[in-house]
Amino acid sequence: MKNLLNVGSIIFFIGFFIKFFHIHYNAVVMLAGLFMLLVASLVAIVKKEGGVNGWAHLAATFWLALLLFTIKFYPFVTVVLTLTVASTIISLIAIAKAKTWKASVFPAICMVLAITFYLTPADNKYRLMNVRWNYEIDTDFATWDKYSWFLYQSGKYEEALDASNTALRIASEAGDTEWGNFIADHRSRIEQRSWTTFR
Question: pLDDT at residue 50 above 80?
């Protein structure tokens, strides 16, 4: 199971790394890593093979799941956070009983990483994970449009309008009328301060 835990962790962090560059299927890679971690953790707990490590890795898996939900802006982040806290408490109890504090290192690293991104303002997080190193950013009108939404939600109306104008220009250059109309509607809502939902 240790090998599966290591491979799952490596796969997850490969997916996390390629997310910065907006490389496609990054979420699939992260989910594959999480699945491997989850299976290995549960098997270790059930078989009581290094049960403490099983609980510790389960907590780490939930922290990484929280990280995924946070950076991908998936719904139900609060539910994942609740499960994460519960698994962490159980893990800490198991670690304290066995007095194997070394087992808490990996979950602690995952926790710090997840909390850092969880507490980062949405517009900054979106820029970092989707705009800054996006290799397609010069042609990616959908990302610029979504970025304008997060800027708008943060009260950065002028920056939101700039991002929306960039999105509209790229969509127009690409000849995508449907997206152009969609983005123009968003831009109008930014100007009127009436943008309440992204879709």
Answer: no
